[in-house]
Each structure stands twice: as C-alpha cells, then as structure tokens.
Amino acid sequence: MKKLSPQSVKDSPPNKKSSVNIHDEFVRAVFANLELVAEFLKLYVGKTQNGFKLLTLLDLNRIKLETTQLFGPEGRQRIADLIFWIPLKDRKGSAGVVFVFEHKSERKRSWPFQLLKYLVAIWNKFFSEAKNPEKKNFMLPAPLLIVLHNGSKPIMNKPKLDEYIAKIIGTKQFIPKFDYIMVDLAVLSPDEFGTAPLLRVILELLKRATDGTLYDVRKQILEPLAVIRDDEKTRYWIQQILRYMDKAVKSKKKELTPESIDEVIKPVYKERSTKMSLTFLEKLEAKGEAKGKQDMVLIALRTKFKKIPTYIETAIRQMSDPIALESLMSEIFESQTLDEFADALK
C-alpha cells in the first residue's frame, strides 16, 4: 500500500491548540448525522441476540438528537458527548430509549461513574418535566449506553462501577449494577467496521488517527466513499475528513501539504481530485475556512431541524469568524428548537 512520502508531510511549529480534543470534536460533528447513528447501532448493538431484539422494537427512522446540556446550580454544563431519543415502533405513549454515546481516547477507571451521572441527570430531566411523575403510566426511558474508544492502546479490562467503590461488609447490595457497550477501535479490524461506506470511513479514520497509521489512507479511508455518487454531500464529507486529518497531523507538530492531499485523493477520485484538493485548500485559508464552516453549520442544522428559515441562513452566511462559526456547532447539539438556536445568533 502506498504511503505518503516524507516530503509530503513537513514539520511545522507546535500547535498551541493541540490540547483541544480534536477527536471529541470530530465524533460529535459526524455522529450528529442520524443515518450514521442508525448504522452504528445496527452494527454494534444488533450483533447480540438481545441487542437485535431491541433494535426490532425501536424506530431508527425517528432518532432525535437531544440536548447534552442541563441547567443546574453551576449553570449550563455539557453532560455527555451525544444523547439521542429513540422511540418505539408501536408509538404507544412516550416509551422509548435514551441513547448516551460517549467518546473516549484513553481508559479511565471513572468511565462507569461518569455514565451513571449522565443517566441520573437525564432521568432527572424527564422526571422534572413530567406533568405527574407519580402516575402509574409514567416511566423513565430505558437506557442504552455506548462508549466509543479510539485510544492507541487496546483496553484489556473494561472499567466497572463496583471496582470504583469501596468494599465494606454489609454494603454490597446498595451498589448500583449496570453495564455499557464498549466499542474499542484498537482491537477491531477493518472487517468489523461494517459495510456502510461512510461509517467504515469514519471508524477507520478514528482508528488510524491514534494508532500511528494515519497516512495509509488511500484504500481504507477514501475508497469506500468512491461508491457514493459525486454530489455536494459526498464532497462535504471528504472535506470534513481532510480537515480532521489536518488537525490530527498538526497535533503531532506536522501538517498536510498540497502534495500530500493530492496523493490521498488522486488514486481514488482521479480527475475529480484536483478540484477537491483546491476546494479543501481554499477552505483552510481565512475566507475559505469561514465559508466551509458556514456550510458545515447549515448542513448540521438541516440534518437536525430539516428546514431552516431564510433569516437564520442569511445570518450564518454573514458571519466570517471561523471560531464563532465553530462554536455554533455546540449550540446546534444543545438547542431543542430553532428558536433556541436563533437566540445564540443574537
């Protein structure tokens, strides 16, 4: 397999922003795509008998991205990477599943404790918003907890809650017992990334961004996208992939060059590669980057709310600060309605 040549990746000054978790940012952005979430669930929840039965009950066509923020004594706080509401197919009452999707780049003993905090906070929100939570027909949503790990080292033992709590005789029965699904990319092969082209690309990219093989990208990362038709959405995903690669490389004090970008794209996209390379390079510049982030915000808005008013699109198109535009992505995840998002634009 052809690798990028040493000349195609050049040294650059240390990036002071590299402490920001670019992997978290990328995961939150790409998994805001609800079709991608459905494919992920089919692949990693549906592989067990109970998981398959669960998915047959859920309406994956009506997955809804929920706010990841709660109002508390310390103000508004993000409590999880992504939270989704998945209703039942029978559409009876408000029964359904709340899906907490958490991304981790390194193993920590506190994972289960964090998940428990998220779950309690979510349940508290449902409880406090219910008209009469004491009614017999009121039920808190069933939980579905998944941790996606893309660290450089495999996790041999999944952290468990009871290992984090003191063992004292007579108290064992009071310790909550719950489990979660861990998807550890470090131990998965490309054959276990499914057949959906975009999902394969995203998982392969996340894995290679931390295992030291990021530059072996031609076949594994971009080739699956070649089967997708050449449209605006495909070009958008290619640009997001290249942008993430650029940030990942810069975190290692290097950077992508025009030659390396062309080397990544050309073997797969041939005559389209020059246009794609130029588009991405233009968007890395100040004006182009702002335009790219405007497109990113508008696509995310349409994914979540379907239609957006003209005045909101106009306001976004008038913004030129890439940092301000990037912050709007978090507002999209947090906003329950378009009115809430519109307030963030003021």
Main attributes of the structure:
13 helices; 346 residues; alpha/beta; globular
Number of E strands: 9
**What characteristic shape results from the CA principal axes?**
globular
Distance between the termini: 50 Å
Mean pLDDT rating = 77
Number of helices: 13
Low-confidence stretches: 1-20
The fraction of residues assigned to DSSP E strands is 5-15%
Computed over alpha carbons, the radius of gyration is 21 Å
Task: Tell me about this structure.
With 346 residues, this protein is an alpha/beta fold. The chain has a domain at 31-187. The chain has 13 helices and 9 strands.
In short:
The chain is α/β, with parallel strands linked by helices and 346 residues long. It is 46% helix and 13% strand.
How are the SSEs ordered, and which strands pair?
Blueprint: E1 9-11, H1 22-30, H2 34-44, H3 49-57, E2 64-66, E3 69-72, E4 75-78, E5 82-87, E6 96-104, H4 111-129, E7 142-149, E8 181-184, H5 197-211, H6 218-222, H7 232-250, E9 254-256, H8 258-269, H9 273-284, H10 286-305, H11 310-317, H12 322-334, H13 338-345
Helix pairs in contact: 5-7, 7-9, 8-9, 9-10, 10-12
